[in-house]
Structures are given as C-alpha cells and as structure tokens.
Amino acid sequence: MGAVLAAVLGASLVGCSSTGGKRAEERAAQAAEGRSAVDTPRWTFAMVTHSGDGDTFWDIVQSGAKQAAVKDNINFLYSHHDEAQQQAQLVQAAIDKKVDGLIVTLAKPDAMKAVVAKATKAGIPVITVNSGSAESAEFGALTHIGQDESIAGEAVGDELDKRGRKKALCILHEQGNVGHEQRCDGAKKSFGGTLQNLYVDGTNMPDVQASIEAKLQSDKSIDAVVTLGAPFADAAVKAKDSAGSKAEIDTFDLNAKVATALKDGTLGFAVDQQPYLQGYEAVDLLWLHRYNRNALGGGLPVLTGPQIITADDASELAEYTKRGTR
To answer: What family is this (predicted)?
Structure first.
C-alpha cells in the first residue's frame, strides 16, 4: 500500500519527472473514467455546507470534492441548507450515519459549535472549509481550507486604491455570515477612501438589484460596488446601468460569466479563492488522515486565496471556468 501512496503523492511533488508526469496522466484518466487511483477501503465522507445547489461557487466546490472522491475511492455525500439550525441538523444526520469523515462550513459558527463537537467526540475527523477559519481549531477540526476573509477584504481595499476609487459600496447578501462581515471590514480597513455596507436580501435577486440601484441613484459619488459572490455581480451591473451610474463593479469569486465580464470590461476585478481546491483538498486531506494520519497547516488554515483576477488574467483562465473548475 506504501507504493500506492507514493504513486498518488509522488507526481505532485516531483512534477519534473517524466515518470511522475506519466503517472499523473494515468490517474487523471482513471478519475475521468470513474475509477479510483488507490485501493484503500471505501470510506464515506459527508460535506455539509451553508449554501449549495444553484450557486456556481458551490457547484465548483462540489466538482473538486467529487473528483477527489473518485480518485480516493470515497463514497461522497453532499447536503446543504442556508439556515444554520437546519445545517446543524444535516451534520447530526451525517454523524448518525457514522460517516468516516466530515467536511463542514462555519458561516454561522455559534450554531455549528455543538454539533461539530459531537462529531469529534464520536471519533469522526472534521475539516472546515470556506468559512470559519477563526473557529476551526477551537471547534476541534483537523484544519481549515479556504481564504482568510479579512486578508481577502484588505486585498480588495488595496486594489480599489490602485484603481483610484474614492467611495465604495460593499454588498452583503447574507446577514449573520461572519465571513462576509470580515470581507467588508477588511476592505474598509485598507481602503484609503470611504466604504459603506449595504445589506440586501440575497434570496431575492430583483430586490438585490433594486437596493443597489436605489443607492447608486441617491449617491452619484459612489465609484465602486463590491459584491461578495459572483451571481450578485450581474445584479450590480444591471443596477448600475439602470441608475446611470459610472461606478466600477467588482466581485468576490470567479466563474465563466465573471471571466467573460472581466474580459469585456463590464467588471473591474474579481477575488478568486479557488473553490475547486477547497472541495478537492478537503476530501484528499481526510483520505490522507484516514490512511496515514497526515495533516497540513501546522495548526493554521490552508489558504486557497485571495487572488486578484483582472482582464489580463481572465483569458488565460477562461477554459477552466467553462469546464467548471475555476
């Protein structure tokens, strides 16, 4: 079995080896055909997130997780709910199924603390992804995979300064999401201009558009709008056009539509946290923990972002966004 692990890990660590490259190609072909690259037991891992189907970001997270699950011979279960208490109930359901590993988001950590503790007490290894980096270790998770939301926000503030912006709106579409608050707070901290928060109902896109439009109409000095998710960037663009505003629209997260908008100048920049990696690495690290008691991060989060994406980068990434991995 040691040879199997070496085959799985070797090519990623020795990319210049022709043998390693050939093995990597073989494993990719196996995964594409739905065949695992290892012969470890068929463990069951569950992922429970605070958002999911119909959101391109979470589609990409799932894509990464499913690809890793195929490679690692994992039975992968996925569920989500945007209400924190219901998300906690889904985690409890996974515990009741006695899964071999658990991946959870901590968008509203207070509601998740007790159930994550139940998982760890039951001997189920937990990895947190996307949100909750500050609480992950405290709750007993092996590690957290994602971006530091405060650092990501600061990167946005710096980019707005580089672009000469003076007054920005930060659009929060999910009240109570600590990661969203951290993004806007980080941007406000580093931005040399003025940044205001605008809370909208993210479950009602026409309302999102109307709220942004009303704000832009009432304050013509706003020269930048930052949305916290790719689907909301499109609503902000429509609101800008309806309001006759000249504000630049920028966004967190990348998908095919955002890449196109970056190329044609409809959007200024995007902040990519590489959701495919969040799903893929979470499954892979759980497999490594089950098989070899490996861990990454040294007690600190494993960062997948932020990466500022502009029109110059969009063309290069277009093929990956079209296949749903960026």
So the answer is: Belongs to the bacterial solute-binding protein 2 family.
